[in-house]
Amino acid sequence: MSSIKKIRGFQDIYGEEARKYRFVADTARKIFDRYNFQEIILPYVEDVSLFARSVGEETDIVQKEMYVFEDRGGRTVALRPEGTASAVRAYIEEKLYAKGGYTKLFYEGAMFRYERPQAGRYRQFHQIGAEVFGVDTPLSDAELIKMVKDILDELGIQIRLEINTLGDFESRKVYIKKLKEYLAEIKDSLCEDCRKRMERNPLRVLDCKVEGCRKATENAPQLIDFLPEEKVERFEKVKEYLKALEIQYTVNPRLVRGLDYYTDTVFEFITDKIGAQGTVAAGGRYDRLVEQLGGPPTPALGFAAGVERLMMLIETLPEKQPLIAVIPVVPEFNIEGLKTADILRKRGIKTELIMKEGSLKSKMKLANKIQSDFVVFVSEKPELKDMETGEQELFENIEDLRDVVEKKLSGD
Ligand code: ATP
Ligand code: MG
Q1: How many angstroms separate the alpha carbon of residue 88 from the centre of ligand 2?
Q2: How does pLDDT run across 84-115, given as a tens digit for each residue?
Q3: Could you tell me which CATH number the domain at 15-168+227-313 has?
Q4: Residue 61 C-alpha to ligand 2 middle, in angstroms?
Q5: How far, in Å, CA of 155 to CA of 148, rounded?
Q6: Which ligand has its closest atom nearest to the C-alpha of 306?
Q7: Is the shortest distance between the CB of 127 and ligand 1 below 6 Å?
Q8: Cα(249)–Cα(152) distance, rounded to whole angstroms?
Q9: Which of 12, 70, 198, 366 would suit a FRET pair with 113, their CA atoms being 20 to 30 Å apart?
Q10: Given pLDDT bands bounded at 50, 70 and 90, which one contains residue 302?
């Protein structure tokens, strides 16, 4: 019988890759905590209209990337393609605004998008992300970008930061009208996708990776020229703060982000090291979204980073905890073996009890195979072997041995 395979675009993450995943997720969690963000664990399934209303009816995500299905109760639901919409829904539904001040949330978990799978692009992928509700200052923009930078630094990842401002919806509307006129003139030099985007999502044309489109839009009108003075000044403040924090950035006027809800500052951390899927973390402000989804007017901002893309950039993982193997020399010492392993584990020592029957030699072979750093032979008296140096030491009892093991494992 043929075996069942995983579905295209989905992955099993195991071994070193799983360790990388954990390192990324745990590191992010540590930094989120340092910035006093609280975790929110959001549903994987939402009413489909949540995404149409927030991410945007005309975006690629909603148009062609969402997993939508009818559940057995006849509801049309979607597997979440991103986290912000759910976080905003929860913020409104759970009345998180009621306690006043501002609300800082982080999340971690799987997202689903029906895209063409390739390196760094999957149909189930994972994000870490954070959202801040209830504050509109340039300080909050700089603080969020700094937090993402801290996560990257802690992971040992060095990538460039691009920022831009999208201003407010009103001036953007005026700009989009001008941009459409411009695009209509150069229509023939645009790729097929962009000719479609032109009408529905013209900003996205500026973001197109196709060389011809880049050239053709080189002299396109720029959004910044359409923004009111206060918005330009606001952006200047954000830049000033980033400079003060010694965060390097470049302003990229083409950076428009794929989703409709962004306003003012947007940013991306980008690398050329992992091929075309170079955007690793992205975010920005979305001051109108909470209101748009039926909540009280609430300025907000957030970011999300792709865990798999971060994993691709990790060069060194933290060292593994040393492993100790416990070998009952003969079956008569099995119970003593169980107890020895128990004592070591209670002390927080990573311990593998060799559970196979057989010759001592075969048990040693197994201990080698699992890359034990130490072996304890359980017999009349316990004996410790350092697998690196080959040194062996006999102990009176397990208590003595335990102390020595602890010392050795702590690197003394
Ligand atoms: P891209 O331009 O690569 O499609 P995006 O703008 O659609 O990215 P966002 O919606 O901003 O991405 O999601 C934030 C991050 O999530 C991305 O920067 C990326 O690291 C990650 N990401 C997005 N889509 C995928 C995917 N299909 N597979 C793996 N990671 C992804
Ligand atoms: Mg995308």
Answers
A1: 20
A2: 999 999 999 999 999 889 999 999 999 999 99
A3: 3.30.930.10
A4: 7
A5: 11
A6: 1
A7: yes
A8: 14
A9: 198
A10: very high
309 CB under 6 A from ligand 1?
yes
Dist. CA 127 → ligand 2 center (Å)? 13
**Same topology between domain 15-168+227-313 and domain 324-410:** no
Confidence (pLDDT) at 258: 64
- Summarised one tens digit per residue, pLDDT across range 238-291 is 999 999 999 999 999 989 876 678 899 999 999 988 887 799 999 999 999 999
Please give the distance, rounded to the nearest whole angstrom, from the Cα atom of residue 349 to the centre of ligand 1.
39
Name which residue sits closest to atom 9 of ligand 1, judged by CA. Answer: 282
Label residue 48 by pLDDT band (50, 70, 90): very high
254 lines ligand 1 (CB under 6 A): no
How do the domains of the chain map onto residue ranges? 15-168+227-313, 324-410
Backbone angles phi, psi at 358, to 5 degrees: 140, -170
64-101 burial, b at 16+ Cβ within 10 Å, e below that, comes to ebbbeeeeeeeeebbbbbbbbbbbbbbbbeeebbeeee
Nearest listed ligand to the Cα of residue 277: 1
CATH class of 324-410: alpha beta
Rounded (5°) CA angle 258-156-107:
45
By C-alpha distance, which of 243, 264, 328, 271 is closest to 135? Answer: 264
Percentage helix, strand, coil, to 5, in the chain? 40, 20, 35
Q: Please, what is the end-to-end C-alpha distance for the chain in angstroms?
A: 55
Cα-based angle 15, 21, 23 (whole degrees, multiple of 5)? 105
**Encoding tokens for residue 73?**
């109760």
Tell me the CA–centroid distance for residue 113 and ligand 2, in Å: 8
- Does the predicted model carry a pTM greater than 0.90? yes
